[in-house]
Design goal:
With 323 residues, the chain is an alpha/beta fold. Helix content is 32%, strand content 18%. It is globular, with a radius of gyration of 19 Å.
Amino acid sequence: MIRLPPRGQIESAVGAYRAKLARPSLGDLGAVSQQLYRMLLGGAEPLLAGVQKILIAPDGILYYLPFEALSPQPGRFLVEDFTIGYAPSVSVFASLRPARTARAYDLLAYGDPVFSQSEAVQMQSVYRSGGISFSRLPNTKTEVEQIGALFPPARQKLRLGAEATEASVKAERLGAYRLLHFATHAVIDERAPARSGIVLSLVNTGQEDGILRASEIFNLNLNADLVTLSACRTGLGKVVRGEGMIGLTRAILYAGSSRVLVSLWEVNDLATPALMKNFYVRLRAVQGVADALREAKITMIHSDRPAHRHPHFWAPFVVSGAF
């Protein structure tokens, strides 16, 4: 047990840091990052000697903070020293179990769904009345194809464009896949988290509305080691006192996945495919999920593309679940 500063002080610092993380143009973030590190982990430094992994079960605004991007010293991030994982709560973490059976396939991936302004009118009125529209994400096709190329053709299935439908997800034998990957937009409703969802093709939707919502995900039968939501703000939801963050993460873990990879802010459509490819390359090398993500982030930190070194591009993605 260590004593933390008052809640208001922590919330102010986290808010200031998130603003800088979400918008790299806001200038240097070193001072705020080091301040937060001292607030949250400075008192725990003696306990971390010799430790390789840190599990975070956050509370309140800390659900919105990627601890990997804290700086224990100038020019260095915490992810360079530790593998970091997250859990909605200690009780949820304790209840997580490995996959129940062997899986017949390695990967099921969805990307580059078809949606345009003319097609978006097929959405249910709850989204249309909210002024929600979606721009195409052409690089998600590249992302999914690059990931798919890492696995034997007979052990993976890619659904792209108009085939990336909500109906196809529900018709699939999801429990037969070890890894599920969704590269698309997400709808996040922090007031009514059951309406949050993964946006799939908005054409040829059949009886579906094209958005796989949290309320529907709860009823899926997953048996995955990992579900990746490569979309914006998929790790957010509604923070309920005593319950934690209620949203897509909780729904996917409840549906039977051991882990979920989600994002904490708007992600970059150009940088994300590079991060994801690096992540899956390391995952294929039989690294653990959290370890593979750590290595992919370190690769970005030391990238020969200066823009990719900023935490805005690598820090939004976090792994929640089994560690």
